[in-house]
Task: structure prediction
Amino acid sequence: MPPTVELAPETDARVQAIEETDILIGIPSYNNADTIGHVVRAVSAGLAKYFHGSRSVVVNSDGGSSDGTPDVVARTSVDLGAMLIRDRQSPLHKIITPYHGIPGKGSAFRTIFEIARRLKAKACAVVDSDLRSITPEWIEMLIRPVLSEGYDYVAPYYLRHKYDGTITNSIMYPLTRALYGLRIRQPIGGDFACSLPLVKKYLEYDVWETDVGKFGIDIWMTTTAMVEKSKLCQAPLGVKVHDVKDPAESLGPMFRQVVTTLFHLMEQNYGAWKGVTKSQPVPVVGPEPIVEPKPFEISADKLLEDFQLGISHFGPLWESILGSKKFSELKKLSAVRSASELHMAIDFWVELLFDFAITFHRWPKDKHKFVQTVTPIYFARVGSFINEAKDLSNADAEQLVEKQAERTEALKPYLLEHWEENPVQEKSAAASP
Result:
């Protein structure tokens, strides 16, 4: 029996007063005062325009913001002019609550899910609090498939610039597709919807006080929905405008966090993915908007510099893991004179990715630190992709991502062949992090 999720006394009283709802929209937050007002207004307008006959609740689950984020939510009107089309028997309620548990997005989700469970919400959606591009139509795209078409999990389907989402493009999408056999393009998207049965299933898992609750919740939820054989679709949300992250500057920590969770899930769900031999498309439900993401710059020189530093710091470890032949290829790659010369073949990268997952599975020490040591190789792959896609449109660059996903599926036998080999021995400890 899963532990009871604690709610703040005032939140519990508010939930009891509302009793039941049809739709619940959760907005997790932490110091998002500049953007959350826009998100609340868009959510409210979407509920009013597309679900005016339904009972609805908006929940802000806050992690102790110091910038007045909950105050902004409280001041933001949820009865806009569009709300006039709602009838008095279908009000829109608002709950502002702190979340309990370890700091992190997962704890915010857990509180949202618990409120949805208690209110028997037929559909629950969650949207990021730093969104600048959210529109009322997002709410329809996320909620309608659950309410009207029987889907259990609705993943976001964004249109992104070719250099945005490098962790998703180079690791999360191709690997989850090859492992579990479903083509979820954005398996770590922050905006999604799910059914009440799946909400209840999520709450039964004992992950909320672990690292998953800190930083791996998005990939855990997508993976769990696939492993549970839930009915999945994707919602075409268009361009997601948020603070774009240059992988050379800020995505190292995210790489370590998300990839660590992904590899842990591979270990836990081996029985679910070992027999999957090919992938199936996941339907995109709804009209796809015709928009073009804005370009942004990326520091290719910094990517090369970090890769070269990685060779000097972790070279012996990489060689002990990969063998002399693959390590020689990495050394040759690191010897280029400029970032414009970086080129890592797709099949080589896919095998490296499998090698990392296999080593993680066998690793006897701190697995998180192991992932940290291979981050520079990810930077090299991103630098290579920049060169491959430099003269391509976003649509043509997407075909490169698809090609890598196809090759990841094709090379999966390599992963299976080596997965159950003997663990890393202590003789490698001198090179370990």
User: Anything to note?
Assistant: The beta strands are 23-29, 56-62, 92-98, 123-126, 153-159, 182-183, 192-195, 232-239, 280-281.
